Amino acid sequence: VATRQMETKPVITCLKTLLIVYSFVFWITGAILLAVGIWGKVMLGPYISLIADNSTNSPYVLIGTGTVIIVFGLFGCFATCRGSPWMLKLYAMFLSLVFLAELVAGISGFVFRHEIKGTFHRTYTDAVLNYNAEDEASRAVDYLQHTLRCCGVYNYTSWFGSVYYPSNGIPASCCFNSSDCKPEDLRNATLALNKVYHQGCYERVTSFMETNMAIIAGVTFGIAFSQLIGMLLACCLSRIITANQYEMV
After folding, report:
1. Which neighbouring-strand residues pair with 175?
2. Nearest 10 degrees: CA dihedral of 244, 246, 247, 249?
3. Burial of 94 per CB tally in 10 Å (0-12, 13-18, 19+)
4. 40, 135, 187, 220 — which has fewest CB within 10 A?
């Protein structure tokens, strides 16, 4: 039995080291999600309000998920250092839940990407048609057009049917040179042609989504399957420690 314990000890030490390293990386992942959630809430609020029909809680979901992962990452380190079998099993169970959640989220995002594009088209078109330069949706449109250097849904002619155009013309956020973009120019469709961006915002956003969807899906699935490594390490360590305790008894 003593010889057996001597052979098992290096294996336990190795598994503990690997699991602590993994838990630290897992903790960093949680910190990144937390930072992205906060950044998304602060910086991407206008974009999110246009992509979703109603106010979305996506940033709060990221903040909550990141916080939980940070807590369980620390718990994983503590459970590994303590060498507690039941704590390690609980940690493995949590990793399995995270794995399933990320897998479902990744598949859903990839499968329903066309529905997301349709929702954006509908909400952005509605925001353009009802633009008044004052409410939240209007400010979101201005922010989107100025940041992405685009104008209207498909192009600047999308503004001709808006309630804002008859008295004010095309919004100044469409201008590619604000110093050379007078209000009277924006009320004249012929003059505005040489003053505003020609590409529509719908094409800009959807082309970005199509270009980066494969990368986003790959990263999501990669992070999800990395949970399997943690689950395997935690289960193996728990089993070896339990077996070693029985042998000592």
Report:
1. 196
2. 130
3. buried
4. 135
